[in-house]
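Retro notes
What went well: the complex prediction finally ran end to end.
Inputs used:
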Amino acid sequence: MKIGVESEIDTLPPPSDRRAILLEKALKARRGEVAVQFSRFHLYSSRPELDEIALVLGKPRKTISVAPEISWSQSTLSMELFLLAAATDRSLFASPGRSSVDSGFATIRRNEALLAIDKILLRYSCPLNIVQASEGSFFEECLRYLMVIDRVQPVGRPEERLRWLLLTLVALRCRTIRDIRALDVLNYFWEQLPRPLPDSTVVWSFFGNYDAALERNS
Amino acid sequence: MKVGVITNAMARGARIASEIEKNPGVEAWVLVFDPGGAGLPKRMARESYYFASRTVIFESLSRLLGGRILYFRKPIGHPSSLERIRSQKFDIGVHDLNIIYRRPIIDAFGRGILNSHIGLLPRYRGRCVAEWSVLEGNPNGVTVFFIDEGIDTGRQIVLKEEVPLPRCKSIASMKSFLFSRDAEMYRKALAAILAGKALLTNDIEQGFRYYPMSQLLLNVVEQLVQEGQLCQERSSRNDERDR
């Protein structure tokens, strides 16, 4: 049994092309939705500014620089601005040579969310090391945490900021590397967001990176 | 070889048990658990749902009368359940229960517990793997492997087969078709074990863990499945192989 109009089926492109066409169409449609939402947050920043920030952060660093007096979990800064501050301020230096998925992330528990944020920032204050191949295991752990542990948690809880931080890390990677599996984690959370969308600096930061990630993967 | 089919409905377990007993030397028992603690009325409703054919009813009743269906009031991980399983000295368990098994449960079966997974390992671990296979343009299939405590990370693969998909109306019907192959795949896997065939290694470094798919991509997959292009692609590939 054939589904649809006969002539349509006969004129369909080969499967691989068809997949690519449908996928591109879907991602473009989603980009449109995100762009509309993102435009609501123009007071905070713009896409070119975000791109500029990402460019600065995108250069892997040999040293980790964390301003000890700044903690994103207590700050009102956006994720990007905080990361930018952390990455450029003169402060505490540590070696970045730790292996992937060390105790820093593996010990994260739900009730330690704020501590976890600081641990991740300590490790990723040069955050775009997340795109390095050596951080693949850490990245997988981010996905697992989001989709297995965090996915079933309600919105509006104190640990929410950890979710946005991890989503931002995933988005930062997806705007650099084509990875539809990781991008779909962002798709999934976008669909779970309450409507109307929350108006906060944490969330708009995610929108900007999600938009860029969709563009990269389209 | 004594095999225990771990299930939450007698009818489902009986269906698998009767299929795997087509292997000479296999004696199948059905172990019925109630993971949700649903109680007798819900249990009966669940059983009725699976009594879709006279064959299954007959199989279930004959097994019941033969004493080869064991009902458990406690969860499978409860000490009393584990003790009862151990006392039966099963060689292998066959998974048909929607839970993650802890080590004491796995160890209660001599060689472990087999799982029929509707994705081709080691590439596709986790959730929605049939959908991801379609989206990534790879063949669909089923893998039978000995489980461990992780998600599709058991190291020993007994059987792995590509499954050509028929024309499907939806993702649900595609998955239903793949799931319906479980009894047959378990039979083949047990035959391979009885014949002493070498096991494959599930090298998880060669694959990824997949997660629930977003609605955005599910819509893409649904359309691909409905258009049936992937099915035709696989069918033609198999035609070539057959020739």
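What we learned: Residues 168 and 218 of chain B are 15 Å apart (CA to CA).
What to try next: split runs per interface for comparison.
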